[in-house]
Amino acid sequence: MSIKLRLTSLFMSIALSAALLSGCYDINEIEDLAYVIAIGIDKADEKNFTLTFQTAVPKSIAGGEGESIDIRTFRTDNFLSGLKKASEYLDRRINLSHTKIIVVSEEIAKEGIMAFLNGLQQNIELRPNVNIIVASEGAQKYIESIQPKLSSSPAKHYALLFKSYETDFLVKDTQLEDYLYRAKNHVTQPVAIYTSIDKSIGDTSEASEKEDKKSEEDSKKAGGEEKDKSKEKEEAMAIKGLAVFQMDKMVGTLNRDEAMLFSLLTSTENRNMEIIDPLDNRFKVLGNITKSRSSSTKAIVKDGKPQIDITLKLNVDVKAVQSDNDYDEPEKAAKLEAAYEQYLHKGIMALLNKTTKELKSDIFGFSQQAKRSFKTIGEWEKANWQEIFPKSEYNLKIKVDIRRQS
Amino acid sequence: MKNKIGFGSWEATTLLVNLVFANIMLVFPRDMVQLGGSAGWMIPVIITLIAAGYFAITVKLYNNIGSMDLLDISDCIGGRIFKVIIGLLITIFLILTASIYLGAFSQTLKIISLDRSSLEYVEVLFLAGMTAAAYFGVEAIARISAFLVPAVIIGFLLITVGVIPEFRMNNLFPVMGEGALEILKGSGVRLSVFAMFVILFLMVPFFKKQLLKKVGFSYVLLSGILLIWSTLSFILVFPYEMAADKKIPVFQIARHMDFGNYIQRIESISVLISSICALIFLGAVFNFVIYVFAKTLDLKQSKPLILPMAIIVFSLSIISKRVKFDFLGDSITNIIWLLGMVLPLIIIIIGAAKKVGTEGTRRHK
Amino acid sequence: MIVNIIILTAVAWITVYSISFGIWTWRNKNKLGGIMITLVALIALALPSYILIFL
Known about the structure:
The complex is a heterotrimer. By secondary structure, chain A is α/β, with parallel strands linked by helices. Chain A has two domains: 28-260, no CATH class; 270-406, GMP Synthetase, Chain A, domain 3. Chain A is built from 15 helices and 14 strands. In chain A, strands 1, 2, 3, 4, 5, 6, 7, 8 and 9 form a nine-stranded mixed sheet that branches. In chain A, strands 10, 11, 12, 13 and 14 form a five-stranded mixed sheet that branches. In chain A, a hairpin with a 2-residue loop joins β8 (237-246) and β9 (249-255). In chain A, α11 crosses α12. The longest helix of chain A has 29 residues, at 330-358. Chain B is mainly alpha-helical. In chain B, a hairpin with a 3-residue loop joins β1 and β2. In chain B, α1 (9-26) packs across α6 and α4 packs across α13 (306-323). Chain B is globular, with a radius of gyration of 20 Å. By secondary structure, chain C is mainly α. Chain C has one domain. The chains are: A alpha/beta, B mainly alpha, C mainly alpha. Chain A binds chain B through residues 9, 13, 16, 20-21, 23, 25-26, 124, 127-129, 177, 180-181, 184-185, 365, 368-369, 371-372, 374-380, and chain B through 37-38, 111-117, 121, 125, 128, 132, 135, 168, 170, 173-179, 238-242, 255-256, 258. Chain C: Keywords: Membrane, Transmembrane, Transmembrane helix.
């Protein structure tokens, strides 16, 4: 091949590659897409339900003017057609690549949410780390209560929100991929974040009061109904605990304390936990608990019954003591250790009994340990973990070590 | 037909390793989980050992053969007729391989990136690359793969290393997975991943005969490591119940990479790796389609064959996609693919028995 | 429709070019080669036509 021909071929290859492979045919402008940040699913009536979409307004996020989010609700009888309807209404193609949460109402959660999630999971845009939330007051109400005041980007608001919860009890198991895996298999059962109204949270800022007045005046001028905005603003949603599922149906909840203990058993993140001061029961002691690597969980199936041995070795860094007691002193530290051990032992055993006997749902993942004692998948499936799990017997050992007082 | 072009052992090795790597990018880890469950990682171990044994036998037999490729050996064994039969069989085998992989790569790219484009449009893009590679020749593809394939493999390894925090040792249990019998059956069926041994034995005249052993064992070793590591990392990230349904395994693994605010959504790298791997794979296979066909029929020119062959590959790819049959994952097609190992073995055994090495050298001088 | 015609025209041109190569090969005392090339050319015409017309 002559040099001229080679150079021409090379130039043609580069030009064609640049033109064809840059994906102009599939070009996606930000303005052409509706980035859905949150999806909400509520029950409307027997056959219908409402879909709520919280979409980001890119112009506003970038320019800082106007609302950064747009919330729309649609009534539909089928989730997939609801998505299509939303796309038509919004006049843009729905893009789920920045979806942070999927919220379902408690009613729907109790009936089963697999039909909805199956409709969503085929969409490759949807990230596996989308959080599943069960809202006791309804998904629409929950989504409307999320007002990102400190952040112009709603997606960032959610990311920071969940990051802040990590120090409490939020666990990775509430994410979409884990949920789907657990809901479809008869072993470890899924959990989801459970939210409810927290009446102790109220927005009493000046700006908020001014907004209330302005909206009252606006609605008077428009002749519309006056809404009691001040009361609505008080109804902020807060995470109340975890929703426990059996396959894809919600069977119960764990409160915040139980959820904290659940995360202590299942994750390795540090947790803040307060207990009543053993030396002065008027006050509390706040400690940061770290699970030692030597903690272990062993589960075997013996004579058709799971035997689960849990050994927890915990280190506690005392963060705050309301009383004047100095827990650096060895005798006092020993009392605090005993108090923590007693509190945790009681709490964890109650939690285990609740999930095992009452809810009959293995949310801890003991099945993952139990299957180690089986050689093949066939033998493991024959053991029928879901059926034998309620017969589980626990042997719990807790050892707490107070490391230092901050 | 004496080859005036040549390349070294590294080029040959990387070219062959890429042929196996293509399978890893598309379906291999998922297939292993479907066949073996949580013990799916044992299958590539067994396959690699069998492939090493297979190559050890064939390279030993090659002592009596010299620097001839499969077509030259067939010519010595049964004359022109036998050579034509074998040549056409190999050509059809390679054409089907190229068309199936063209469809598979195009579909992968369509699912991940170009979802609004039609499949045919995506296939044309790959076809253009494949055809260009054929015009440049085998040597060009071999030399390109010498520096691109290591980059692609490093990218893949970085992805698998990046998801190490997501590894769960519990996913390897139950330890025997679907059972020893299923694992052995799976190993037999999926030995087809080494079907490109046929290309190794067609490449012999391009590099010196002394390098055959080095190239072959390097190919088996590197491919084996990649096959085992890809399956192991896939199973460690996804429990077997979930892994069996995951399409495009490497892409699915890459989606789990998440380091703080800066390293997110790394799966785009897997798209780049997949595309480069696809172009080199298709270019190499298609080059050999043309080479084998031309050599079989003793053609003086081979370039005029490129366009009609490209059309045939493209058309077969379209037809295979319309048929909606999973050619890559199906057991029967995988058994048929074993032809890529069985046919060369039979020819080499007969050739070695007939000691075609000395006779062949006389004829081909 | 027009696109199909353009595609078929291109394919037909490639077929004619390949058949001419087949004829040249035949004339160069390689009858089998000539026949096989012609066969390949005809398959290269038949397959796209089948896809465009029937599928």
